[in-house]
Amino acid sequence: MNKQTLETSLVLAKAGFKLKNEGNYLGTLWYLLDPLLMFLIFLAIRHVLGADVPYYPVYLLIGLIMFNYFRKATTDSTRSVISNANLVTETCIKKEVFVLSTLFQALFSHLFEILILFVVMIIYHLPVQYILLYPLVLFALTVFTLGICFFLASISVFVNDLANIWTVIARLLWFATPIFYSSRLPLPFDFNKFNPMYHFINAARDMIIYHQAPELVTSIFCLTFSLLSLFLGFSIFIKTKKSFAEKL
């Protein structure tokens, strides 16, 4: 992916972002409503789910906004190529652009969610300077998410129901990941060892809430998942994109 591809992706992402907000009275505030409402709901029942979790509101919000970013980017990627069928078949624009623009739109939304996190940290008297470490985890999460986006975008061209299938999978992963409950909750099977989102969210919580570097195992998992996801996802996309035109 060269500089021109990234620039074209950003232009499309900005245009799509503005288009979604056009005619909306609340504009970009719509991007905040989903994580904010979920945050308030789980905060109201914190005595049941997070009574033993220090700084539970911040703990909860970090999980919500990180997973929301992953979910939005990957879900939208299942339509990124299909919804641009005319451009894919009739222009010379690199097909990677459509996947990247989808990711960038989700990233733009995520920046607004980080503002909520900043405010909540102030309310609960957590040192806000530690949020400056978050881009380290966000970069790794973005690389991982991009790999999944490339995979889903390519497979969705050949599997019509993939968008619905992925919606169900993402919802199951949301409940399986310790977002609104303690990560120390004893489970019959420790699925989280193999759950990338668990490691990314834990790394962010370690730095932002507890002011400590993530455990070595967590860092290794995050790096491995990110590189492996991007390598496999992009490889599949490159191999299948030649057949997009005839399938669309």
What is the structure about, briefly put?
This protein is mainly alpha-helical.
Give the SSE layout.
Elements: H1 3-21, H2 30-44, H3 46-49, H4 56-77, H5 85-90, H6 96-123, H7 134-156, H8 162-176, H9 196-208, H10 216-240, H11 244-247
Structural summary, described in words:
The protein has 248 residues and is mostly helical. The protein has one domain (3-247). The chain contains eleven helices and no strands. It starts with a helix and ends with a helix. 38% of the residues are buried. The model has no long low-confidence stretch (mean pLDDT 86).
Rg, please? 19 Å
Query: How does the overall form come out from the CA principal axes?
Result: globular
Biggest sheet: strands, sense, closure? none
Q: Tell me the fraction of residues in β-strands, as a range.
A: under 5%
Q: Give the assembly state of these chains.
A: single chain
| Number of distinct helices | 11
